[in-house]
Amino acid sequence: MLEPPIAVRLVRGKTRCHPHITDLQTFYAVTTTAIEAQLGIINVGTSHMVLAARAAQADVALPLNGYVEAAVSGQPPDEIIVRIEDKKPEPDGIDAAGMTPISTRLVSAEFALFVETGNEWLRQNFGKQVSDWPPVSNFCRVVRNAIVHGGRINLNSETAVGGAWRHLKYDHRHNGKPILNDGDLSKGDLLILMLEMEQELNEVGAPFDLG
Length: 211
What we know:
Blueprint: E1 6-11, H1 18-38, E2 48-53, E3 58-63, H2 67-73, E4 79-86, H3 99-126, H4 135-147, E5 163-165, E6 168-170, H5 187-203
Antiparallel strand pairs: 1-4, 2-3, 3-4, 5-6
Helix pairs in contact: 1-2, 1-3, 3-4, 3-5
């Protein structure tokens, strides 16, 4: 379990979630720069995007410096340092309400893509009985399924295997429960889950290329 304060180093070609998090950094860097220009804010250059993690009670800071240039060149940095920090009060900043749903959908999509690749490897190597899977990966499976079912838990049978992470536990009794935005999880939680699933895949001997 990743607890704040901690810095996590992601390396291209060695860390599976590197390209997914790079996509998010590029998106946040470009949109922040564009919004600052639209509002007449010159040369601020936001250095980090901070995403709140509701369930983990933490903040996740993604570095943004260099990612506008990366969007132009197609060459993002090879290394990322993601910081998980103690939860702080909501900071002052640009109010761009129209970006919130877009940002949530993008983080959710990157999470689902990463998790499904891991899920496929786990099915092949641990079997289809998901109760035998490592716990974080199993919880990520539940969240991924919720994302592709409108952000609501999709455990519609009494025999459906749920999952647990930190203080959260989902089973068939939670079927239909919304879990994102105003639910139990926020965007920062999805990033922490990706990082913890990455760590868990390493611990069970998964290759870098999950096929």
